[in-house]
Amino acid sequence: MKTIKMINISRRNAIALMLGTAGYIMSSGIAFAGKEQVLKRIDEITKGKGAKELDIFLDLPEIAENGNQVKVNFEIESEMTEENYIKNVYILADGNPAPDVAKFSFTPDMGMCSATTRIRLSKTQNVVLVAENNKNEYFITKSKVKVTIGGCGG
Amino acid sequence: MSKVKPRGKVPKKATIDEVIEIKTLIRHPMHSGRMKDKDGKNIPRQIINSFKVDFEGKEIFKMKLEPSISTNPYIAFPYKAKKTGTFNFEWKDDIGNTYTMKRKMTVS
Fold first, then answer.
1. Measured between CA atoms, how close is B95 to chain A, in angstroms?
2. Could you tell me the pLDDT band of residue A149, with boundaries at 50, 70 and 90?
3. Cβ-Cβ contacts under 8 Å for A52 (sequence gap 6 or more)
4. Backbone Cα Rg of chain A
5. How many CB pairs under 8 A join A and B?
6. Where are the alpha helices (H) located in chain A, listed in sequence order?
7. Domain range summary for chain A, segments of one domain joined by +
8. What rounded mean pLDDT belongs to chain B?
9. Across A61-137, where does the E strand assignment appear?
10. Do B77 and A114 lie within an 8 Å CB cutoff?
């Protein structure tokens, strides 16, 4: 039957196509990192091991009026001793021109694992935090930020 | 270009095993390489790409910065006070400039 043949494009493909077209029109020449690139980066960071989802305190505004200065604060519960401490923390963003935002390297001397900085977000997107401890275990958490005015000069 | 000036806030005094907060800010344009000037020309990328803190010669904290970090990078982090000493802060940018700052802390 003809009608069945017409819906040969799977639902997933159709959505991808729609999103792709919309994305193309909206971005008009500016390439954004996108979810795939972030997933690829997570894969690179974790060396293919993948990361466990963990309830990490990641403090980001729900709505950022100005994407130029978005305060990020995180705190990870850790003993911070020579035997057990958080070694690296990566911040990634899936809607910026490049997925990487920052990499923090901690030492047991710090007593606790937390840091604050300010980042640029070009549009509404997910901010992903990947933490690595000294035993090469990985933890992940993410938070969505709505951005009213973009901060990447786009 | 305005002068790059590092600033930092470290408590002058702390008690032993107290976790203090160190705050730093450096005045820097952080050109991401995507912004345009008044004539529509691209401003080349020029950012602070690394930040490092030593305490009495031992590295305690390091950060790698990407263009997604805001203008005038602000960084705050904790430190567990153990002894009296000096913190050495170091920022490096894309064109090879290094900015340093020293802060003393007395632990009792």
1. 19
2. confident
3. A137, A138, A139, A140
4. 19
5. 100
6. 2-6, 11-27, 34-45
7. 33-149
8. 90
9. 63-66, 70-76, 86-93, 100-106, 113-119, 125-133
10. yes
Question: Which residue reads 């401890």 in tokens?
Answer: A133
pTM of this prediction? Answer: 0.80
The answer to whether B67 contacts A97, with C-beta atoms less than 8 Å apart, is: yes
pLDDT score of B4: 78
Interface test with A, best of B37, B45, B68 (most A CBs within 10 A): B68
Q: Classify strands B85-93 and B48-55 as parallel, antiparallel or unpaired.
A: antiparallel
**Alpha carbons B15 and B5: distance in angstroms, whole number:** 30
* Per-residue pLDDT, A85: 92
Q: Please, which residues bridge with residue B58 across strands?
A: B55
Selection from B90, B97, B85, B55 nearest residue B75 by Cα: B90
Question: SS3 helix, strand, coil % of chain B, rounded to 5?
Answer: 0, 55, 45
CATH code given to domain A33-149: 2.60.40.2470
- Contact A48/A136 with Cβ under 8 angstroms? no
Q: How confident is the model at residue A106 (pLDDT cuts 50, 70, 90)?
A: very high
Q: How far apart are CA A138 and CA B101, in angstroms?
A: 33
All structural domains of chain B, each given as residue ranges with its CATH number in brackets, are 6-34+45-107 (2.60.40.10)
- On the CB side of B104, CA atoms within 13 Å amount to 1
